[in-house]
Amino acid sequence: MQIFYENDADLNVLQDKTVAIIGYGSQGHAHAQNLRDSGVNVVIGQRPGGSNYELAKEHGFAPVSAAEAARQADMIQILVQDQIQPKVYTEEVLPNLTAGKTLVFSHGFNIHYNQIVPPADVDVVMVAPKGPGHLVRREYERGGSVPALVAVEQDASGKAMDRALAYAKGIGATRSGVLVTTFAEETETDLFGEQAVLCGGVSALIKAGFETLVEAGYQPEVAFFECMHELKLIVDLLYEGGFKRMHYSISDTAEYGDYVSGPHVVDAQTKARMREVLTAIQDGRFARDWILENQAGVPSFKAMRRKAHEHQIEDVGDKLRQMMAWLQK
Ligand code: NDP
Ligand code: MG
Ligand code: MG
After folding, report:
1. What is the biggest distance separating any 2 CA atoms in the chain, rounded to whole angstroms?
2. 196 alpha carbon to ligand 3 midpoint, in Å?
3. FRET label pair with 168: which of 36, 58, 153, 215, CA 20 to 30 Å apart?
4. Tell me: the pLDDT tens digits for 29-83?
């Protein structure tokens, strides 16, 4: 494992250089403002018409098209939605991607699965914060940072890692540490994590638990609190200090139940199915399906989203959250 901190990165690498942030969304708004506060010259490529265009102006930027931003910049960070990156890259970035420039990504999907194939005379790097954009901005403002991953896919200049580390320092990431990875490792672990654990696994676990209680005749409201709402308290403890901290804080009864029932619910067969999920990611089947789904106009994606949001736990949760004043923003 290789990890870099503040002293390993030199912001001077970006002196007299311009960094284009293409897409002023969740990650884009954070990278752009952090870089600017670090003294880096930033240009925003954000399409007009939406709230993010207005937000960029509110934040004191003068957003231009992705093509114009790419033209002006030495380093081009692609922060539009992953599904539309190939189109934006081909139509707007590539015509302005002259030799010696650096392409930056915050997720390896399009490079790893060959949806974007850059010319050989540019650097291709990744700086991927391990957290959502609003946190990347908030932690930076507090003097800290969200840690990040860095990777070099293509080193045309011989300075690709220095450039990636300078960018990472500019967004603050070296304050808490920047871990070296590859595009393959970042892409495959990111997809696996969100599918098997963070999003897919957790959602399925919540729903199964909720349904089990409701089908057994318990009140849906009580089931909601137990299976969804309280999850935040547990996750906060895990975030602060792992299982040790969580076990210290919960009751001995809860801890005992954890040991005897957890492995019974998520068992060796679950793990075998996790390996199947991982295999479909590694051999490109998941990527192929998601790319084709997008080409078809996302029919299954929209149907599954509608069905997920029609679940009883959503109505129960909406109703109860209205009574929790601190959640009303
Ligand atoms: P968002 O969806 O939040 O933002 C994308 C932005 O790109 C929007 O402002 C969108 O404008 C803009 N955009 C779309 N098309 C164009 C175009 N043709 N020209 C200019 N701007 C355009 O994206 P995220 O920040 O979520 O994701 C960006 C990247 O960061 C992805 O690779 C993602 O995997 C990665 N990442 C995201 C994380 C996250 O927490 N969200 C965490 C780590 C990595 P409009 O509003 O008009 O659609
Ligand atoms: Mg992801
Ligand atoms: Mg309890």
Report:
1. 67
2. 25
3. 58
4. 999 999 999 999 999 999 999 999 999 999 999 999 999 999 999 999 999 999 9
